[in-house]
Amino acid sequence: MTTFATIPAPARTASRASSRAAAPSIHPTEPCARIEPIPVDAMRPEWLATLARIPGDGLKGAGFPRHVLGTIAHNPDTFGPFLEFWVTCKSRMALSVREQELVILRMARLYGSNYVWKHHVPVGHEFGVTDAELDALEGAEPAVPAHFASARERALLALTDELVEHRTIRAEAWRMHATTLPRKELVDLVSLVAQYVFFALMNNAFQVEVEPSLDAVRELAL
């Protein structure tokens, strides 16, 4: 009878767990962007009109994310519809702008995206996010301690960590947090996280440079 030696299975679980626990690199990590962004003055007037509808002032003027938007605009056939979707979501989601900013800033930390972080620190401040809360959002542990008094905000941040770290919401986290939020807001949360997965990957993959106008804004520190 032929016998076969038992080959141990690869230790996938441990390696995946350790990779999740490791802090991400802070991007950009290269001195120059990989794709030169299209300048703002080359953008269509209807695109700029859509962008003018973004709530608040933080993503306008000095905070306008011209480099990442100029990168996405290399495909003009999809850029206009994307802007309409993104801006409509920001203005009509059931989540408040402060709640959106807490999630976005946490996403910036989880993806190591200094670009997203530096653009959204001023927006967060505009809508009431404190420096102590920024410290919590930068932390390696799930950002749900006493820094956030609101049960809604604790739920949003815990579920954001679930979606990024586990690519789903595990049953225990669902039981703990989902009853805090109505169904509409749960759907909006997943939509918001997905949008900023897109932005974080766009920035990280193409090494999009942070605009000099944001030099004075607090850096992401892991």
Structural notes for this entry:
It is a single chain. This protein is an all-alpha fold and 222 residues long. The chain has a single domain (30-214), classed as Up-down Bundle (AhpD-like), CATH 1.20.1290. The chain has ten helices and no strands. It has helices at residues 12-21, 45-51, 66-72, 76-92, 97-111, 114-126, 131-138, 151-166, 171-177, 183-205. Helix 2 (45-51) runs parallel beside helix 4 (76-92).
Q: What is the secondary structure topology, with strand pairs?
A:
Elements: H1 12-21, H2 45-51, H3 66-72, H4 76-92, H5 97-111, H6 114-126, H7 131-138, H8 151-166, H9 171-177, H10 183-205
Tell me the CATH architecture: Up-down Bundle
Give the N-terminus to C-terminus distance in angstroms.
Answer: 57 Å
What CATH calls the topology is AhpD-like
| Broad CATH class | Mainly Alpha
What summary fits the major beta sheet?
none
Outline type: globular
Average of the residue pLDDT scores: 88
Q: Extract low-pLDDT stretches.
A: 2-21
Number of domains: 1
Helix/strand/pairing category:
mainly alpha
Instruction: State the helical fraction.
Output: 55-70%
